[in-house]
Amino acid sequence: MNTDATQQEQPGGPAGGWWTEAVIYQIYPRSFADSDGDGMGDLPGITARLGHLTELGVDAVWLSPFYPSPQADAGYDVADYRDVDPLFGRLSDADALIAEARARGLRVIVDLVPNHTSSAHRWFRAALPAGPGSPERARYVFRDGLGPAGDQPPNDWQSVFGGPAWTRVTEPDGRPGQWYLHLFDTGQPDLNWDNPEVREEFLDVLRFWLDRGVDGFRVDVAHGLVKQADLTNWQEPQEILSGNDVAKPRPPMWDQDGVHEVYREWRRLVDSYPGERILVAEAWVEPAERLARYVRPDEMHQAFNFEHLLAAWTAPAQYAVVTRSLEATDAVGAPTTWVLSNHDVVRHASRLGLTTAGGRLNGIGIGDPQPDAAVGLRRARAASLLMLALPGSAYLYQGEELGLPEHTTLPDEARQDPTWERSGHTQRGRDGCRVPLPWEADAPSYGFGPTDASWLPQPPSWAEYALDRQRDVPGSTYEMYRAALRLRREHGLARGPLAWLSTGDEVLAFRNGGLTVLTNFGAAAVPAPTGELLCSSAPLDEDGRVPTDVTVWVRA
Ligand code: GLC
User: Which among 81, 184, 188, 285 is the best mutation to test ligand 1's pocket, defined by most ligand atoms within 8 Å of the CB?
Assistant: First the structure.
């Protein structure tokens, strides 16, 4: 095989399958649109605003959880997988949303949270009184504690949100008893995926939503379900992103080989339904080759490419992540995906304005070094335009089409992410990227809902980001996204192949779909490619050159 040729021309994954080319828009239901004015977004609010998404030009939406939940982790603590929390509406509202989306030609993906339930789930509520050794406890990971009194946790694992990953329960006789594992909040007990009953239950949950017409599932913490059988100690700090140092042993709680059999079984089920339903892995797994194992032909269809999200804003780092990602997914015949923001990380319009690079940045607050808003937005626009020109499928997070920054001065008393408390106020957490969207500059709650209410306060500066201030405004971030999505479709950019033209330290340029795409990461302006300028993340300079932190799409 000629490695130079593969370096120069990289395919964009398999032909066919709507998901291989799709732009998928993440809706965070709490913060998208509030129909009843209680300050919490809801399903009827989403349905009423679906026109925004068809106007923007995306192919599908992914909805973060809307199921009944005590909301200990904003709904990622599910108490009932087959219903809708009254906060967000009713099951009939979910049906109406799916039907309206379909009528508009939008696909709908729902979130599935299989690593843990809520402690309010009927299974966990039954496990407590049932006592040690019961079939009810065998659905979770209960263990006796260490030490003569059993008052030490069964191992040294830490929760992703901070603090120990074990909590001790009180037994039916009133005495302190066993411990249960929760890799996240205490309200999120981990399920025991060695138990066939757990596997059966989730197959049934999948059927429930497939029968209601959803087009697929985003699978939460897909790399966590199966734990190393001996639950061995792990002295390293808890990082959800694991395995990036291949010389180190694999953490016993992440990316165990046993998870793949679960996804093979799910794949057989979704394939038995008509209409190309898909599975998408949220797996914080590196390197790319290890992540690619989740998207082998008989497993999931896609996996989020967090290596892309985490890559530094330099030409070498971006070149490396693009080439590595395309090669790794190509090796298993899967489409590559791209993502810059979601509900768990600092929005890229702020992240790229920080001088501290990389990392799964866990929030910014009052007193922290603040991002440079102008630099952040400029780079975010350039990064988005670069992403949307790459072969494969792209994920957008609600608000990024408005250039929305993180709320980086959210008052600490308003914070709701359990990370803030569980980390002993050392990690701000993820509230700053979850603030309700601004739709109308001059309306109460910027048009998020009919009242002033908003479950997290919106910053006063957000009027300028409101959709109605950007619609039909040439050069606005919103119009840039719309143009990019239209051109991406017209020129088949998602299909590739991509051929590199320039991979220097300051400029990246490639050909795809008859376009030349160039990003200038350097300090000095560079000549624009010759041809018709179709799209640009910021104006060219007076000499027609591409300034720093700008991406252009040119038709030769
Ligand atoms: C995933 C979700 C995150 C949640 C966690 C536990 O990482 O994206 O929001 O807190 O899983 O369910």
Answer: 184
